[in-house]
Every structure is written in C-alpha cells, then in structure tokens.
Amino acid sequence: MAEVFVVVDAQGDTVRKVTLEMLTMARALGEPSAIVLGAPGTAAPLVETLGQYGAQKVYTAEHADLADYLVAGKAEVLAGLVAEKSPAAVLLSSGQEGKEIAGRLAVKLGNGLLTDVSGLEADGTATQNVFAGSWIVKSQVTKGIPLVTVRPNSLTPEAAAATPEQVAVEVAVSDKAKKVAVVERVAEQKGSRPELTEASIVVSGGRGVGSSENFALVEELADLLGGAVGASRAATDAGFYPHKFQVGQTGSTVSPQLYIALGISGAIQHRAGMQTAKTIVAVNKDDEAPIFELADFGVVGDLFKVVPQAVEGIKQRR
Amino acid sequence: MNIVVLVKQVPDSGAERSLAGDGNTVDRTGGTNVINEMDEYAIEEALRLKDETGGQVTLLTVGPDHALESVRKALSMGPDAAVHVSDEAIAGSDALGTAKVLAAALGTLEYDLILSGAESTDGGVQVMPHMLAELLDIAALTGARKLTADGDGFLVERQTEDGYEVVRASGKAIVSVWDTINTPRYPSLKGIMAAKRKPVTAVTLAELGVPAGEVGAAGAATTVLSAEPRPVRGAGQRVEDTGDGGEKLVEYLAAEKFV
Ligand SMILES: Cc1cc2nc3c(=O)[nH]c(=O)nc-3n(C[C@H](O)[C@H](O)[C@H](O)COP(=O)(O)OP(=O)(O)OC[C@H]3O[C@@H](n4cnc5c(N)ncnc54)[C@H](O)[C@@H]3O)c2cc1C
Ligand SMILES: Nc1ncnc2c1ncn2[C@@H]1O[C@H](COP(=O)(O)O)[C@@H](O)[C@H]1O
C-alpha cells in the first residue's frame, strides 16, 4: 500500500490532536507515515503516540537549523522526501506553520494545494469549508498528489496500534532556506485549559461581559466544563481578554462539540469562526441578537444572573 | 525605502457571500466588493515606514477590472501609485496561479519591502506570502504584530500558537501583517481628491510574459467538484430568564451530556 505523509504538529512533547485526526484520515488513502521536523530530540517523545494512531513509519528529520530558522527549511526537507518516496498524499495541519510549509511545498512541486480540509476520500476528494464554513465544497488536486491542510476538530481520532519503524532523514538546510532567523521565542503560560482550536468545549465572552475582571465568570464556567475560553473581537479590542483568544474571521476558527456565547451579539464575522460547532448555546439579554438564530439553546437574560446560577447548578450536580 | 503593498479586492465579509454560477469561483460581481480588511493594515504600516525613511509606496493588485474601484479607495489613504494586473485569462486562478502573476509583476517593480495582509477573507488561505517568497527567493516574515526596519533588514514580532516569537531577515523581504499591528487611518477629503490623479498602471499577462495557460481556470492545479451552502442552522429552543434561566441552562447541558 502507498505511503501517506502526515506532517506532525506537536506542542513540545505532546502530539496535537489534529495530528491524530490526520493519521486517521490518512488511512483512507494508504499507510500513514508520520514526519517529524524539528530540532534534535523532537521526535523521541512523540513516537509512541504516533504509533498508537496507526503510523507505520516515523521519519525523523532533526537538525538545529529547522528550529533556528523559519519554515523554508522544513519545506525543503519535505520536498526532498516527497521526491524520494512518492507518497500518495501529504497532510499538514491547518495552523499557521502547516499552511506556510504547504504553500512552499506547492510551489516547489508545482502541486495543487487545498486548505482547511475537513474530510478526505480514498480518491483524494477533499471536503473544504469556505467562506468561514458557510459553504461546503468538494474539491480535488488536479496537478500532483493530494496536498492538503486539515482543520482541527474535523473528525474523532481512531486508535490503530502499530509499532512504527523509525527512519532517520538526513537534513542539510541550504543557505537559501536560512533567510529568516529566530531571534527569540517566548512561550506564554499555557495554563491548564485546553487549546482554543482543539477544545471540545469553548466558552466565549463578548462586549456584554463588560470588563476584564468580569471575564473571571467566563473562565469559571469554562473550567467547570473543562473547556477553553474564547472572546469576540469587541472584547479583545476593548482589552477584556488577550487577542490570541479571539474567535472569528480574524481570529481562530473553532469547531467544538459545544460553544457557549455569553454577551455576544453574533455578528457575521464572529459566526465565521464558530458556526460549525456541533451545539451552540447563547446567553444574551437582547432577544433580537442574531446569535439566537443559530443557537440550539438560548437564554434571553442578564448573563450576570444566568451564568452564576448555572455555575452553582453544575457544582451541585457533581 | 520603496515598498509594494499587495491589495486584494474581496466580497464584503459582512454581507452574504456566494460562489459564481459555475460553482467553481468566488462570485465577485456582487455590489459589495471591498479591499481585504487586513490589507488596510499593510497599507498603514507602509505609510508609517515611508514617514520614517522616505521612498515610494506602490499598491499592486491582481484582479478583474472592477478591482480598480477598491484600488482608488486604497490610494486615498496615501500610497503614491498603483499597478493593476488584469486579464481575462487570470479568472479562476487558484493560489498558485495568482502567486505566479504577482511574482511576475513584482519582478518589474523596484522594492526593498513587500507588505501584504496575513490572509484574505474570501480565500483565507494564508499562503500567498510564502508562495511569493519561494518564487522570488526572498525572506517571508508572516503574521507580524510588530515590524521594525533593522539596519539592512527587518525585525518582526509574531504571535504563535504557544506564545510569540521575534524573527529577523536581512535584505529584501515580504512581511504579512495581522490586524493587531496598527490602526489604519481613514482617508481624508484631501486624500480622496488626490487619489483620483494618482497613476494606476494597467498591466496584462502578455506584458508580464506569463503564459496564459499557466494561470486561470485552465492552469489551476485544483478543481471544485461540487459546492453547496451549509444547511441553515435552525434556531433551537429559547427561554426567557424569569429567575431560573441558569437552572434551565444546566438542565439543557445535562440533557446533552455536557455536565
Ligand atoms: C473585517 C472584519 C473582521 C472581523 N473579525 C471579527 C472576528 O474575528 N471575531 C469577532 O468576534 N468579531 C469580528 N469582527 C467584529 C464584528 O463585526 C462585531 O463587531 C463583533 O463580533 C461584536 O462583538 P460582540 O458581539 O461581543 O459585541 P456587540 O455586538 O456589542 O454585542 C454585545 C452583546 O452583548 C449583549 N449584552 C450586553 N450586556 C449583557 C448582559 N449583561 N447579559 C447578557 N447579554 C448582554 C448585548 O445584548 C449584545 O448583543 C470583525 C469585523 C470586521 C469588519
Ligand atoms: N489577487 C491578489 N492581488 C494582490 N494581492 C493579493 C492577491 N491575493 C492575495 N493577495 C495578498 O496576499 C495576502 C494573503 O492572501 P491569502 O493567501 O489569499 O490569504 C492578502 O492579504 C493580500 O495582501
């Protein structure tokens, strides 16, 4: 069976969930081979998990240059590996880096590229969400192999235990690919909450939350449910919550099982980032707020009354 | 410093957006086309750098004839000139095709820096800057929330999934900006009047030496098989809070097995 490349997206020692989704998706097209690109030592803590989700091989392309310079080197290594192994498809995650590597790879190989893919069939037909999820499009790459970036939370990862063969890849990054040097990398406190784009529950606050202090209420509900915290642009612009938690067209796109919108009107640009959520719940005091048009369950009321009561109710049920 | 800013006309993201009759391309005929929002931040950043270092700011767009309207509007913010690549053969291009056209056009311009938006709201693919960097063999610094001219190069601070990072490149670069980088100015009345007289150069594919077969729907490396609007989400249950709204909410969450 043909190999299918899955470019591993990990955070430190942890394989991101989207990688497990890609390993699951890849099995429709062939045998998944996971590819780890990074500094020496990146792959070792990831191999076991990759195997649990069906990676038959793990290519480890490790070199300090891959961490010290931005993505061009990773694209170079990957292009070499594609030329050598002729995989049936290449899957990357739809995060910033995944898309950047994919864009470069498309140019290097003269290969078509499909982004924000949520499904992939055996014949390479990809399901894409366009216009922020308001259209569902089926497309195919017509030049080259299916080269796709996969949107997180597209499917439920399925385990398929394998003991992957580890293959070390020789890495020699050219000077051409060393144009952008990393001067400083600052990791911000991750905290105990799940990542916004991967969380299966997201609780978001909008302008109606009123202040950064009041966001504690949004956080409390999120923590009780084991969810991530999000915010509308009005809330991030007002400084209630850091920008990186913004959900919407110019923020993150989330696709959780449950999305709770507190004090958010539901502007089209906000909906753009959350309308593919499985279940949507809204609390808003304005019964004409557009968010109610897509909410599975809506409470018309003051969030400062409704949410504390809900928090108490959940605690009591424990 | 001479700066080229890439601007793209897109359907207004605040309005209903649709695919054209062929089901394959974005419907760009509708009345509400605007400059891609993020590109305004790129223009603002270019004008700020020009204030510091002098030089010229030139807008570059690849798009149909009516993209000109949006370009004139963008010129009213303050850039000096614009180049508009328009050719029927470009219609239906995918990202790779557009990148080839943009790269060819950039090859005819003098620049020290290319600025672009981090992503377009219609394609939203976030790949253009890296495709161009690959084609032009220059550095790509993407998703900037802060940009500084730094000696013979550029320094960029960018948000990452884990925090943020500072990256640097010497020589020519393409920098794409996020909407956290600045606050774009509103065009002044004087700016709007001046924009009418600013030079806009129209360019065709033949003039750029790009073979028509390499771009457009014919040259596209991807194809759309089918497209349909996502089924409209029916509004669900709604309750008025009469003192027990929080309780009702918990009951719903429990019934759906979230608590
Ligand atoms: C190009 C572009 C891109 C954009 N990108 C994004 C994006 O990525 N993400 C995004 O979110 N927005 C984005 N926007 C902005 C978007 O148009 C809206 O302005 C924004 O989403 C509004 O945020 P909000 O719902 O929190 O605020 P508002 O629209 O002001 O709504 C606040 C809501 O809170 C309710 N409320 C107030 N007090 C209470 C209370 N005590 N209890 C209950 N309810 C209360 C009000 O009834 C109201 O409905 C973008 C806009 C543009 C033009
Ligand atoms: N047709 C185009 N003409 C000019 N600039 C473009 C075009 N397409 C994309 N860009 C630029 O590339 C950025 C990223 O676009 P995208 O990769 O489509 O998300 C945009 O914000 C624009 O600055």
Automatic annotation (TrEMBL), chain A:
<dbReference type="InterPro" id="IPR014730">
    <property type="entry name" value="ETF_a/b_N"/>
</dbReference>
<dbReference type="InterPro" id="IPR029035">
    <property type="entry name" value="DHS-like_NAD/FAD-binding_dom"/>
</dbReference>
<feature type="binding site">
    <location>
        <begin position="232"/>
        <end position="233"/>
    </location>
    <ligand>
        <name>FAD</name>
    </ligand>
</feature>
<dbReference type="InterPro" id="IPR033947">
    <property type="entry name" value="ETF_alpha_N"/>
</dbReference>
<dbReference type="InterPro" id="IPR014731">
    <property type="entry name" value="ETF_asu_C"/>
</dbReference>
<dbReference type="GO" id="GO:0009055">
    <property type="term" value="F:electron transfer activity"/>
</dbReference>
<dbReference type="InterPro" id="IPR018206">
    <property type="entry name" value="ETF_asu_C_CS"/>
</dbReference>
<feature type="binding site">
    <location>
        <begin position="246"/>
        <end position="250"/>
    </location>
    <ligand>
        <name>FAD</name>
    </ligand>
</feature>
<keyword id="KW-0285">Flavoprotein</keyword>
<comment type="similarity">
    <text>Belongs to the ETF alpha-subunit/FixB family.</text>
</comment>
<dbReference type="InterPro" id="IPR001308">
    <property type="entry name" value="ETF_a/FixB"/>
</dbReference>
<comment type="function">
    <text>The electron transfer flavoprotein serves as a specific electron acceptor for other dehydrogenases. It transfers the electrons to the main respiratory chain via ETF-ubiquinone oxidoreductase (ETF dehydrogenase).</text>
</comment>
<dbReference type="Pfam" id="PF01012">
    <property type="entry name" value="ETF"/>
</dbReference>
<feature type="binding site">
    <location>
        <begin position="263"/>
        <end position="270"/>
    </location>
    <ligand>
        <name>FAD</name>
    </ligand>
</feature>
<feature type="binding site">
    <location>
        <position position="284"/>
    </location>
    <ligand>
        <name>FAD</name>
    </ligand>
</feature>
<dbReference type="InterPro" id="IPR014729">
    <property type="entry name" value="Rossmann-like_a/b/a_fold"/>
</dbReference>
<feature type="binding site">
    <location>
        <position position="207"/>
    </location>
    <ligand>
        <name>FAD</name>
    </ligand>
</feature>
<keyword id="KW-0274">FAD</keyword>
<comment type="subunit">
    <text>Heterodimer of an alpha and a beta subunit.</text>
</comment>
<keyword id="KW-0813">Transport</keyword>
<dbReference type="GO" id="GO:0033539">
    <property type="term" value="P:fatty acid beta-oxidation using acyl-CoA dehydrogenase"/>
</dbReference>
<dbReference type="Pfam" id="PF00766">
    <property type="entry name" value="ETF_alpha"/>
</dbReference>
TrEMBL record, chain B:
<comment type="subunit">
    <text>Heterodimer of an alpha and a beta subunit.</text>
</comment>
<comment type="function">
    <text>The electron transfer flavoprotein serves as a specific electron acceptor for other dehydrogenases. It transfers the electrons to the main respiratory chain via ETF-ubiquinone oxidoreductase (ETF dehydrogenase).</text>
</comment>
<feature type="domain" description="Electron transfer flavoprotein alpha/beta-subunit N-terminal">
    <location>
        <begin position="23"/>
        <end position="212"/>
    </location>
</feature>
<comment type="similarity">
    <text>Belongs to the ETF beta-subunit/FixA family.</text>
</comment>
<dbReference type="InterPro" id="IPR014730">
    <property type="entry name" value="ETF_a/b_N"/>
</dbReference>
<dbReference type="InterPro" id="IPR014729">
    <property type="entry name" value="Rossmann-like_a/b/a_fold"/>
</dbReference>
<dbReference type="GO" id="GO:0005829">
    <property type="term" value="C:cytosol"/>
</dbReference>
<protein>
    <recommendedName>
        <fullName>Electron transfer flavoprotein subunit beta</fullName>
    </recommendedName>
</protein>
<dbReference type="GO" id="GO:0009055">
    <property type="term" value="F:electron transfer activity"/>
</dbReference>
<dbReference type="InterPro" id="IPR012255">
    <property type="entry name" value="ETF_b"/>
</dbReference>
<dbReference type="Pfam" id="PF01012">
    <property type="entry name" value="ETF"/>
</dbReference>
<dbReference type="InterPro" id="IPR033948">
    <property type="entry name" value="ETF_beta_N"/>
</dbReference>
<keyword id="KW-0813">Transport</keyword>
<keyword id="KW-0249">Electron transport</keyword>
